Amino acid sequence: MSLPKQAEAWADLKAAYRFFNNPRVDPEAIGAGPRRHVLRMCGAHEVVLVVQDTTELDFTRRRSARGLGPIGAEHGRGLLQHSALAVTTDGKILGVLDQRLIVRTEAPADETRTELEGRWRESLLWGDGVRRVGTAPSGCRFVLVSDRASDCFETIHECDAHGWGFVIRAVRDRNVEGKADHLWPWAEKQPVCGTMAVRVSAQTTHRGAALRIRRTATVSIRFGAVTLDPPLRRAHPPRRVWAVHAREEDPPTGEGVERVEWLVLCGEPVEDQAAARRMLAWYAHRWVIEEWHRALKEGCALEASQLHDAEAIRRLAALKGVVAARLLHLRDLADPAHPEAEDPAALRRAVPDVWIEVVGAYTGVGAATLTPRQFWMSIARKGGFIGRKGDGRPGWKVIWRGWSDYSLMVEYALVVRRRQ
To answer: Do 31 and 115 belong together in one domain?
Structure first.
């Protein structure tokens, strides 16, 4: 909701506006404490996937807002957000490791290739993200997982420099093996070693139109080691990597359906079918960050902010980024496949006691036995989720409505406590 709706009193609202508009408040410092906590959690895992992606924050309708830049293809205005999430190898979010908002600058129309390579450009965001997160805690290894926009030698160089592995989806049909072949034809010549089912997440436009429907696709798998030739005029040596190619041979037809085809470049050894499947499974966890973007934009309504300055929006985004990660963590905890989905103690570690008491009393389950799944589904049903067999997970809009209704009950419970 808007800041006036969230604030309990006029003094609280003025304090919030002073905080978000205070130039002495560093957005990096807002997320520093949560990031330290996430790094500590990473130390308990042998491998942590660091999923990076960029999204556009659209404030086109906020015409009075200062400090915005161009986005989209229709003269939109807003900010680019590049983020890094810590995700376990089974796809559970640990939290935000980096969140950076930048203003896009348009390239000069007459820019030469030499001038382009001599300045900072958006393709360097992924390498910058590796450098900003830094080395992994002792006993843990970071593996970058990223989409096609990260496919450049600079990204691989930063991973090597910081001891990271990488699983990067290829987009460039590079020269390989000393110009003896190109990457895509080389991959298609590798023998098929098996098949694998991959889950395709749904994707919609900001207006709700379907770009991609949720489904499960069966892909054939090929893999092998290959040497990538470095780009011309750049000081990079050739790089030996493993490549895994996954392609849906007989995709269904219809709106929102496109063939699944991934060619991922891996810093991890891929010497058998099991390792190839593992790399594809790790790459599939990249969709966690898309869900986090949805939690940030739909669940936390970041783009509905009425703040008038890009710097103020940066501070608000740093705060809401942590909230969105907590929402996603709670949703994962309530998933039927999660080992703690039916554990009341896990809910007490994740949610304030007053919420557990209110939801338990309203549902009749009782606070002592309320589980994460019961808690989450109760919030969703309060927001209008029916929960039929084919309905899938509750969306962020019904969660928001249910959370809002329960918030009023929690407010009342706190008032009653203060009067006792």
So the answer is: yes
